C-alpha cells in the first residue's frame, strides 16, 4: 500500500513539474506595449506602439485596427469621428515590431481615448489607450548638450600650521 502512495506522489510531483515548466512558454504571447507620441496638438498624429513578444510568423498574419463600435460601447469609451482618420501600419525597426499610427489631418482635440484591436492567427486582443497631446510650444524639446570635458581635480594645498609654542615651567 505504501508503494502505491509513493508512486502516486511521484506521478503528482512529475505532473506538477511539467505544468510549471510549460507556464513560461505561455507567457510569450503577442501584446501591445506603451504608446509613444511624436506629434503635438494641431499637428497630424504620429505615434508608435511596440508589439511585445512579436514573432515574424505572428506578424505575417497580423491585423491592427480601431475596435468596432460595439467594443467601444461595451468598454464605455466614446468613439469620436476623428478616430476613424487614424491609419495603422506594422513594420520592424531595430529588431522590434511597431504599430505606427498616423492621420492625414491635424488633431484638434487635446486628448484621444480609443480602443485598438489586434487579430492574428492564434488570437485576438483589445487594448485601450488614452493620449494627451501637448500644444507645440509646450512640447518638451530635445536638446542635446555636449558633456563637459573632464577636468583634473587638484587637491587644495594643505594649510601651513606653525607648531604651537611649548611652554615649560621653571622649577
Please render the helix and strand layout as text.
Blueprint lengths: L1 H25 L4 E7 L6 E9 L3 H5 L2 E4 L2 H7 L11 E7 L2 E11 L4 E10 L2 E10 L39
Antiparallel strand pairs: 1-2, 2-5, 3-6, 4-5, 6-7
What does this protein look like?
The chain is α+β, with helices and mostly antiparallel strands. The protein has 3 helices and 7 strands, in the order H-E-E-H-E-H-E-E-E-E. The chain has helices at residues 2-26, 56-60, 69-75, and strands at residues 31-37, 44-52, 63-66, 87-93, 96-106, 111-120, 123-132. It has a 4-stranded antiparallel sheet with strand order 1-2-5-4, with no helix packed on it. A hairpin with a 2-residue loop joins strand 6 and strand 7 (123-132). The N and C termini lie far apart (104 Å).
Amino acid at each position: 500500500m505504501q508503494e502505491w502512495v509513493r508512486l502516486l506522489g511521484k506521478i503528482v510531483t512529475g505532473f506538477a513539474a511539467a505544468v510549471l515548466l510549460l507556464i513560461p512558454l505561455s507567457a510569450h504571447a503577442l501584446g501591445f506595449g506603451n504608446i509613444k507620441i511624436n506629434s503635438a496638438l494641431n499637428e497630424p498624429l504620429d505615434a508608435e506602439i511596440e508589439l511585445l513578444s512579436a514573432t515574424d510568423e505572428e506578424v505575417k498574419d497580423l491585423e491592427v485596427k480601431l475596435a468596432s463600435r460595439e467594443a467601444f460601447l461595451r468598454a464605455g469609451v466614446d468613439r469620436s469621428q476623428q478616430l476613424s482618420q487614424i491609419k495603422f501600419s506594422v513594420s520592424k525597426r531595430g529588431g522590434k515590431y511597431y504599430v505606427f499610427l498616423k492621420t492625414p489631418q491635424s488633431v484638434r482635440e487635446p486628448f484621444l481615448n480609443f480602443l485598438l484591436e489586434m487579430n492574428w492567427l492564434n488570437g485576438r486582443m483589445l487594448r485601450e489607450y488614452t493620449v494627451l497631446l501637448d500644444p507645440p510650444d509646450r512640447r518638451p524639446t530635445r536638446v542635446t548638450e555636449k558633456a563637459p570635458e573632464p577636468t583634473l581635480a587638484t587637491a587644495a594645498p594643505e594649510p601651513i600650521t606653525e607648531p604651537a609654542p611649548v611652554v615649560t615651567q621653571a622649577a
